[in-house]
Design a protein that fits this description.
heterodimer, A: 104 residues, mainly beta, Ubiquitin-like (UB roll), two-stranded antiparallel sheet, globular, B: 362 residues, alpha/beta, FAD/NAD(P)-binding domain, five-stranded parallel β-sheet
Chain lengths: 104, 362
């Protein structure tokens, strides 16, 4: 799902980044957001609707619509479309509105 | 709470240009951006801009972005940038609350420029929430900024410039655009963009809309149907196209919520995209020393956003006592640039929108 050839842009090979998605290791690259790395890995459903639990993907990619919110390193409601991917991140689906957590 | 001089919310074309103008005039600037990079929508605009040389015409958006960011470099000692920072509250006493990771902090500013831009609208149809249904600009970001393909076969809904340009850029990324549908009888974007698509064999279906999407976990097909002059679907005209991605390009809404929260007067002007702040001819909102520029004041091209940003940066700096050289002449010249950008048949709606605004723009 990565673009290989492009008439205007060059996507040079970047440093791989490994993260955990639902307990499984997945590889993204330096410069990815969480959402772009997941999409490239074939994961389209990022969140689910609160009541009917319908799958939701990203929509706006500017951190505005909340459709890509996931739990990242225990922090709920993380806007994965604008959050840079980092080595070792633990990413899971969010199944509720998000619960308060202690950042310490 | 930290006290700053000029606070700019949003680092897209309007915000970056406002920062640059204000810095040139001598102001201390704090720039807040919720993304992890500067540039806003310029960061994925690989197409060449129209307009005149003054607005960087014939340069690609991504290169204009680099020019703007580089131009900020000499002013590092007077510029503070907060990336990945969300302004979550905006009070009438010039205090904004910011959320940055686990941190919450407050800033007090002497003047504030709101350059929050706009968000892409959604479209109601059956299963419009399925993964695979994305805003067209979002797909542009995924491809051009991150180098990731949204899918293999795409349906584009809407023939404004974003719909037309993103369709072309999908083709450039090696992705098939199965069709572009437009409910109106004619395309709404520039013919030059549409012609490029037609030459490459992409069907542009006018008086056609999307009835629904199908798929269990993500989109596997879409149903199209013909619409009448009142944009109502005509039963019996349905056809199904196999696609894994549906791009929605049906306009944008100004992100004016922060200004509404601060108590600035905000009003609905359909021609400008939705709720916009009332601004005087100097782009000052109904709260003194709180300015707005770019798409938040009405949906336009990035070229206009940059001109507005330039103007507002100068005017805000001026109010803070950093009187720019030749201010009246420069403002007049910038207003003339805006007027030129808003000429022509495509800007008719925009002109009507601005005319509706009391004490309106230019």
């Amino acid at each position: 799902m990565r673009i290989e050839h492009h008439p205007i842009l060059t996507f040079s090979k970047k440093e791989p980044i490994t993260f955990l998605y639902e307990g499984k290791p997945v590889q993204g690259f330096e410069g990815d957001t969480i959402a772009s790395a997941l999409h490239a890995a074939g994961v389209k459903a990022l969140s689910q609707s609160i009541h009917l639990k319908r799958p939701r993907g990203f929509y706006c990619a500017i951190g505005n619509c909340a459709s890509c919110n996931m739990v990242v390193n225990g922090i709920p409601n993380t806007r994965t479309c604008i959050t840079p991917l980092k080595e070792g991140m633990v990413i899971t689906h969010q199944t509720n509105l998000g619960v308060l957590y202690d950042p310490r | 709470m930290t006290h700053v001089e000029l606070l700019i919310i949003g680092a897209g074309p309007a915000g970056l240009q406002a920062a640059l103008s204000a810095l040139e005039a001598g102001a201390h600037v704090t720039l807040i951006e919720r993304s992890h990079v500067l540039g806003g929508q310029l960061s994925k605009q690989t197409h060449k801009f129209f307009g005149s040389q003054k607005q960087h015409a014939s340069k690609r958006g991504i290169h204009i972005m680099t020019l703007l960011i580089d131009a900020l470099k000499p002013y590092q000692d007077r510029l503070t940038i907060h990336l990945e920072t969300h302004v979550v509250s905006f009070y009438h006493d010039y205090v904004v609350g910011c959320s940055q990771g686990d941190r919450y902090f407050k800033l007090h500013a002497k003047a504030i420029i709101v350059a929050t831009g706009a968000s892409e609208k959604a479209l109601p149809f059956e299963n419009n929430d399925l993964p695979g249904v994305y805003a067209a600009g979002a797909v542009q970001t995924l491809m051009n900024q991150y180098g990731v393909k949204p899918g293999h076969k795409v349906l584009m809904v809407g023939s404004g410039n974003i719909g037309l340009i993103v369709s072309y850029q999908l083709l450039q990324a090696g992705i098939e655009v199965v069709a572009l549908v437009e409910a109106a009888a004619q395309i709404s974007g520039y013919l030059v963009h549409a012609s490029k698509l037609r030459r490459l064999g992409v069907p542009i279906l006018t008086k056609t809309s999307i009835k629904g999407a199908q798929g269990e976990h993500s989109v596997t097909s879409a149903t199209l149907w013909d619409v009448d002059d009142a944009w109502q679907g005509i039963p019996g005209s349905e056809q199904t196209v196999e696609v894994d991605t549906i791009c929605i390009s049906v306009g944008l809404s100004p992100l004016s919520d922060l200004l509404a929260q601060a108590g600035a007067k905000v009003t609905y002007i359909n021609e400008l995209g939705g709720f916009v702040p009332w601004v005087n001819q100097d782009y000052e909102t109904t709260i003194p020393r709180v300015f707005a520029c770019g798409d938040v004041t009405g949906i336009e091209e990035a070229s206009s956003a940059m001109v507005e940003g330039q103007m507002v940066g100068l005017l805000a700096a001026n109010q803070l006592g950093h009187v720019p050289e030749d201010l009246p002449t420069r403002i007049d010249a910038l207003k003339a640039e805006l007027k030129t950008l808003r000429m022509g048949p495509h800007a008719k709606k925009l002109r009507l929108g601005y005319a509706k605004m009391e004490g309106h723009h230019v």
